[in-house]
Hints:
Chain A is an all-alpha fold.
Amino acid sequence: MLKTIAKIALCIWMVLVINAAFLYAPSAMGLGDLSRIIYFHVPLAWVGVLAYLVSMVYSIRYLRGGFAKDDLLAAVNAEIGFIFTILATITGAIFARFTWGVYWNWDPRQTSIFILLLIYSAYFVLRSSVEDEGRRARLASVFSIFAFVSVPFLVFIIPRVYATLHPDPIISAESGFQMDAVMFKVFLASLVGFTGIYTWIINLTSRVINLEQNNRREN
Amino acid sequence: MVKTSFSLITAIRAIVVKDLTDEFRTRHALTAMVLFSLTTLVTVSFTIGIYSLDIMLHSALIWIIIFFSAMSALSRSFTKEEDSGTILALKMSATAEIIYLGKLFFNTLLLIVLIAVVLPLYYIMMNPPPGGNVGLLVLICITASLSLAGATTLLAAIVARAGSKNSLLPVLAFPVLLPILLTAIRSTGFALSGGSGEEIITDFIFLISYLAIVVTVSLLLIPFVLDD
Amino acid sequence: MRIKINNLTKKYNRQEVFSDVSWQPEMGKCNLVTGPNGSGKSTLLRLICGLERPTAGTIDLTKDTSELTAAGVKKITGLLTPDLALYRHLTALENLQFFAKLGGYFLTTAELKDKLAEVGLNSSADTPLAAFSTGMKQRLKLAYVILKRPALLLLDEPNTNLDSEGKQVVNKIISEYKAKSIVILATNDQEEVGQYGENILFLDHCNPGYCS
């Protein structure tokens, strides 16, 4: 019962968010209507990285406990994170085309998300090259953790060291927070909404995994 | 049991010496590295001819050559043990961490040899503009290679355990190595234009901290890769 | 040194190799594992020395009243299997020197040469393994496996490729070690079962697809 309410609530929430993104939130100064992409692009990128983190946590759990379920959850989170990251890249490229003129110019932030895509792809390639389930789980988990080590360098250090054209209103502490109050509300709402969608998808897939595991155990 | 005096250094050195002896007698990795770099250099040099290139292009080319030559040689450290079946005896005689450290040092030596071959050849065949800070260039190359070796040794072990599919290493390594590559290319360009060391101190710090983190994480993870 | 195998099961990708195996190998006897091809003899040996983990069940290894960790087991074990290989481009002596250095054993070159003489390879000490016949390689593996005078000696098909002299070396090693170490032999040769088997484990679950 609670689940159904939550699902409907999420649905209504997202409808409101999308409407607000286009109609309620004001146009930014300078960027104009193009700024509306922030309500989609950033939450997508955020979920993309969050999913990788969750996947990595499951990988660590697998290495400690050896339960196949942890590895399956790690893989599933990676798949979903991959899709969200692709969407983030596409929305980012669209923004780039309309603000800077080209879809892709190897701006440091673009490079960072590209590398995240590469890490995801490498993870899937590795998984598909190992046949033994135990070994596949172990090697994939190790790679996921190891690759994560390079992510902080990419996401935070490279854009700091190299000048970037990418708008940077949120993470840097020095510039302070400069978003208009209304925009900020819609932005947060969108963040919550997309995280909700991600959680819902994960919940569905992990229930499927549980069913498959139970089925397997019975046979 | 036989009387033992176990020494970490002796064990690691034994692995490095064994791999060096093996390499010296077969020259597999060396040949692969040198042939690759030579082929690439000759192709590019021949095509470019007398045209002079932008400094950053030189820098990028140097690192493309080093990166791909390294890929062909670095995966061998573990795949040759898996393919010949010697990994079993190795695992029974040494812990995963010792095996990793031995292979790490060996890979580092291999890369230093690669640089010693590639850099002079590059200067001869590609004629980068004069005025470059050669000492700084060598220092950058060595530091970046240490980071490269640090990052790829664990991945090489993963590739070997995954069935030694040769094309797997570049796929796994590229995203992890990109920060090193980008930093190396940038600072090499700087050195080639004659810059001094102080200005790229941040790059050195970056490379060395990357190396430290990557080796620490590798040491923690290697038992999971080698043990079943 | 004591080993107790409790309800051991091993599966690869849901394909069962053996299940619910319990056994107690002892010092003073030659312990022997036998069964048809694919019944899991080699797998059992690998599980005992910690190279692989069981799907279910436990193996308790205690030495001098303390339980051994995975690394500890490997330190005191000498494992000889058909898939174990030594370094082709090193000489016989260099191979033994390498493993002696790795384990930190105090063995001089003269002592190593003695070990080679024990297995009948004294004249090939400086020949690279690539030039060895399969029988000679097997003999070197015998020298390697007793290098550390292991408290746990696992021999998987030790007589493969050996001539009658080689088989005598194996015989000597087994009788020498069973008194002070736990010796476990794996074989499907009925003659060897008769000759050596004093505490026999028979694995009879046959894996479809692997059975002859």
